[in-house]
């Protein structure tokens, strides 16, 4: 069990590109209700099952378990709500933090967001120049909500 | 991944009691929609996260992963739909099969069902004398449905 404290921002420009290689993420949701989400995620030869609680402010409780990738792929394809979420993730270390930039594909193409995980909700952070508007409080940007209302339909 | 082929029956009388010790099961659901269920189950010092697909006839696809019991207990208490399911389970081997008798507690007290897992949907089975009406096709008896509509409210 972990407490996840995250802030999320839109990304502007391309100043972040070329700094780190991309990882391809493919994920589906077995539950997307607001009380709890259940996510199956694949990245290369690894996969995880992740349960997250309701968001309270920018804090969530999270449980994550590694699972066999072939089982994850079966669940994403056959059990998860459709459409699935596909994205490239770029993990950029800066000033002691790691910025995770998600460049979405498929039904969410065009959406690029950056998340940063904090130790405490009040931690001050230095914003890179490619960081735009904060969207931490906007539920439209939850990955679980990008299934039922993908960016292309906004 | 496993294919689960199960038949379920009501239990009549007490002829099955005293044959094997009871195990206490405590379980909660993170998803109970008909397309898929996500269950967290605790039994003693063991716990599992289980995903099951839609039932097709008496067959379901099932994925089960052991998880730390303290995390399971947290999820059952704080994340799962309420009320949770509590029951005693008795596993009785008979004629090459294992009958799992579930004696429900709490909001489902009074309900006792027996399940038997088969290799093939058409397998013939010898019914013990304490087996009553078959309820394999009755969704009211799905454990996931006993959360929203417990036996005491039928």
UniProtKB/TrEMBL annotation, chains A, B:
Active site: 29 (proton acceptor)
Pfam families per the UniProt record, alphabetical: CYTH
Organism: Snodgrassella alvi
The organism's place on the tree of life at top rank: Bacteria
Coiled-coil region: none
Boundaries of every CYTH domain copy: 2-148
Listed transmembrane segments: none
Lineage of origin: Bacteria, Pseudomonadati, Pseudomonadota, Betaproteobacteria, Neisseriales
Protein name: Adenylate cyclase
